[in-house]
Amino acid sequence: MKHTTFSESVLAATPCLLVNGGEIPYTVALSVQRRLVEERRDNPDLPDVLILLEHPPVYTLGQGATLDFLNFDPIATNWEVQRVERGGEVTYHCPGQLVGYPILNLRRYRQDLHWYLRQLEEVLIRTLACWGLRGDRISGLTGVWLEGRKVGAIGIKVSRWITMHGFALNVCPDLEGFKEIVPCGIRDRSVGSLAEFIPGIDGEEVRLVVAAIFAEVFGVELMVAPWPEVN
């Protein structure tokens, strides 16, 4: 299999910090995102950031999400449930799922939320293509599907054209947790993972490919940076 590497990507004037995390608690990553966004509101010249990580099991709901898509009582449960400021309905994060949080100033790219969503889909579609998999878009829905099963979810928040939240790609997660919800509020389509099509797929290799393709799609030069400290 041949895939794009950092050295093959087109260098651009726009720098973007690449922050790799391991398995990071959702609330910790959320605090980091909020801090990075706040810093960039105060100083728009700061470089963009792409955070790549995984989360322990957690359910998240968008700011306008309905509880009707939960198959459990969020008050009387041992599951971690978080309501956050992104758009969209309920989704599930767990180990084996690669999560990407781009903190981008869209004034450097295009001030168009639909364009931004399609660009995130394009990153995932090109990633799948590196393994010979055809990712599809479905009209009227945001995300990426593989043979009718959703493998890539997207939910964003944009404030003063600075983005947060982002995408989740099911590489090799335990899909059982998705049975507790109606993922993204879509009842007639199931959730899948890349491992169902490519057994033994390497999550770290997928992470490298996603980073390189993100750089291509957005025309940025990635620079590895340490995990930000939270005060």
What is this entry, summarized?
By secondary structure, the chain is α/β, with parallel strands linked by helices.
Q: Secondary-structure blueprint of this entry?
A:
Layout: E1 14-23, H1 26-42, E2 48-54, E3 58-61, E4 81-83, E5 91-93, E6 97-103, H2 113-129, E7 135-136, E8 144-146, E9 149-159, E10 162-170, H3 203-218, E11 220-225
Parallel strand pairs: 1-2, 1-11, 3-4
Antiparallel strand pairs: 2-6, 3-5, 6-10, 7-8, 8-9, 9-10
Helix pairs in contact: 2-3
Description:
There is one protein chain. This protein is an alpha/beta fold. Helix content is 22%, strand content 28%. It has helices spanning 26-42, 113-129, 203-218; strands at 14-23, 48-54, 58-61, 81-83, 91-93, 97-103, 135-136, 144-146, 149-159, 162-170, 220-225. An 8-stranded mixed sheet has the order 7-8-9-10-6-2-1-11, with helices on both faces. It has a 3-stranded mixed sheet with strand order 4-3-5, with no helix packed on it. Strand 8 (144-146) and strand 9 (149-159) form a beta hairpin. Helix 2 crosses helix 3. It is globular and about 45 Å long.
Provide key terms for this protein.
231 residues; alpha/beta; eight-stranded mixed beta sheet; three-stranded mixed beta sheet; 11 strands; 22% helix; 28% strand; globular
